[in-house]
Amino acid sequence: MAEKSTSQQEVQVVFLPDEASDYVPSGKGVTLLNLAAFLGQDGVDWRRIHSTVDALAGSPEATGGKTVFNRGFSEVERGFVEQLKQGRVSLETCEQLKIAMAQYVGATKDHERKDWLATPHITPFRKVRDGNVLRYGNVELRVIENYLIRRDELFSALEKIAGQTDEASMYKEAAFSSHLSADDPNWCLRRLMTNAGFYLSEDIEQAKKDLAEWCERYLEALVSDTLVANPVHFPFCFSIQHHLWTQDGQTFDYCTYPGPFEFYEWLAGQNVLFVSPLARFVNEQVQSGNLWRLYKDYEMPEFALKAIEAPVSTWPNRPGGGWGESFEALCKSIDAEFEAQPFDIFVASCGCYGLPVSRYVSQKHGCRAFYLGNMTNALFGVKQNSTANFMADRANADMWIRGDLSKFANISRIDGGRYV
What we know:
Elements: E1 8-14, E2 23-25, E3 30-34, E4 39-40, E5 43-44, H1 46-58, E6 66-69, H2 75-86, H3 95-104, E7 107-110, E8 115-118, E9 133-134, H4 138-149, H5 151-162, H6 167-170, H7 185-196, H8 204-224, E10 226-228, H9 238-248, E11 253-255, H10 260-267, E12 271-276, H11 279-288, E13 304-309, H12 323-340, E14 345-348, H13 354-365, E15 368-371, H14 375-379, E16 382-383, E17 401-402
Parallel strand pairs: 1-3, 1-6, 9-10, 9-15, 10-11, 12-13, 12-14, 14-15, 16-17
Antiparallel strand pairs: 2-3, 4-5, 7-8
């Protein structure tokens, strides 16, 4: 372990596109950790990120000795500084980069104009010519992190949760060590159940098999497909990326978050199958023709769209005997649609089924898959609380409709009622 220095060196996280160095001693007692050096035309340079973190953590002299941050980070992030001062690297040393990369990777939403602004140095969405484009979720990522790093604790948590049927137990607060941590596997798994739709078979061994299958399918999608870089969710992926890089040298491919009109142009001339709990509302938009009249100043390109129902299995809803059974049923319903007619693009908005089913469809039916989560319903003209003001200044208000999932228990409890 490196010795602590009595000198003080301040580290600031900066974004300097014209500077190639990872970190730059400024000559004023400040080292600039330059995020621009980690971003290239092909996406995020994960190898460079990890070598830089290891260098800073293992060599205090690289930053002139004692290291502090002054960017107003919380006490949780300051734990990263302590790791640097002690000259050791661990998962906790990624906390600072989680925060920093979340600020700069992917795309930034312009809340004034209700639009998206592309960030340079990440592969633009429109240039992803082949394969699937998927967006991960922070609820799912926390369980994936546990599956990779503390698997025994995750399955022990499953056994405990299997005996819980009351709301107080299912919605009990987390006991994390930090707000970006996943070190409360019980809460992470409960959150996957209450918010994203994973549910347990009454057979405990089958429930474990279902969870393992879900994790493996989700991981396969993460490492095989192009991921939409989302600043909100990115911090929850860094520990997963760190683990996969350390174990197998695996890295992720990212593209920018697509704007609405980029998405529509991507669908132009295609035959599209969409899976969503709001399928009947989307089909209503197609049948009425309102879908192609959503905007005042944009002419929607022509494409064929059919929507089919996705299961709603957020706790306590149980459409079948467990997640594995519902996933198999969903796959069969999709297979039947492809047998009836070919589709060029598969799109989904269906919680924790999303990445696994997108990967399944692309592999079995040879089409491209796109998963952006719940936002996709709004892109097809169906609004909920979370998207009530979506593109409001450019929308033909009369052409949009409200979705309704109120028949499902506890939907209003998910993230303050965002899906109502």
